[in-house]
Design brief:
five-stranded parallel beta sheet, five-stranded mixed beta sheet, Methyltransferase, Cobalt-precorrin-4 Transmethylase, Domain 2, Cobalt-precorrin-4 Transmethylase, domain 1, 229 residues, alpha/beta, 2 domains, 8 helices
Length: 229
């Protein structure tokens, strides 16, 4: 019976690795990862010697078929991302969809999840924003559709959460300033769980002014949260 494990790994602090994640990664026949060299850093830390192979968002269908064939042969495989939970703004969704399709023909195939940290839920917990509902937008589009997304955020009656890269961070704050009311709260979570973890809260003008004056803080990985309308 082949088992496919979706395994969460730390988003920064290696102490967040679960005992179960280590056990599963040691026991499977193969680990699929975004980048073997990145994966080896965490695997070596936990003395995990399981063989790794790359799996990208644009991996060819033949790669997916090979993975499914391995499962049908009774092998166990695990999918990890560079950080956090696979498939959440990371590769893996299509692969898992195809495994479920194969499961219709072979009920012995199993898919299991080994939960781990995500920047999404960690930033929401850390933000201090109130409410049980939010809209997750992943990484915003680079060009086409950006203005539409900002209009959606402007009118959203739920909390909006999205990821942003260091290269477009200031430009994104400038765009938010054009669309948001002055009293709308914005929270920026930076380098969550890492040594330089930081939370900056305020209205969009205050947040933008802080990072404009402290450009040395524009580094690392960002999660931006916008309070509901």
């Amino acid at each position: 019976m082949g088992i496919f494990f979706i395994v969460g790994t730390p988003i920064g602090n290696l102490e967040d690795m679960s005992f179960r994640a280590v056990r599963i990664l040691k026991s499977v026949d193969l680990i699929l990862c975004e980048d073997v060299s990145n994966a080896q850093k965490i695997l070596k830390h936990f003395e995990i010697t399981t063989k790794c192979t790359n799996y990208f968002a644009n991996s060819r269908l033949t790669k997916i078929n090979e993975i499914i064939s391995s499962l049908e042969e009774g092998k166990s495989l695990a999918l990890i991302s560079d950080a956090g939970m696979p498939t959440i703004s990371d590769p893996g969704s299509l692969l898992i969809k195809k495994i479920y399709e194969a499961k219709r023909e072979n009920e012995d195939l199993e898919i299991k999840v080994v939960p781990g940290p995500t920047a999404l839920t960690s930033s929401f917990s850390l933000s201090g924003l109130t409410g049980n509902e939010f809209t997750f937008l992943g990484f915003l589009p680079h060009k086409k559709g950006r203005e539409t997304i900002f209009k959606e955020i402007e009118n959203n009656e739920r909390i909006s959460i999205f990821y942003e890269s260091v290269h477009r961070f200031l430009k994104t704050l400038e765009s938010l300033e054009k669309f948001l009311d002055e009293d709308r709260e914005v929270v920026v979570c930076r380098e969550i769980t890492k040594l330089h973890e930081q939370v900056v809260k305020g209205n969009i003008k205050e947040v933008k002014e802080y990072f404009t004056k402290n450009k040395d803080k524009i580094r690392g990985e960002f999660v931006i949260l916008v309070d509901k309308k």
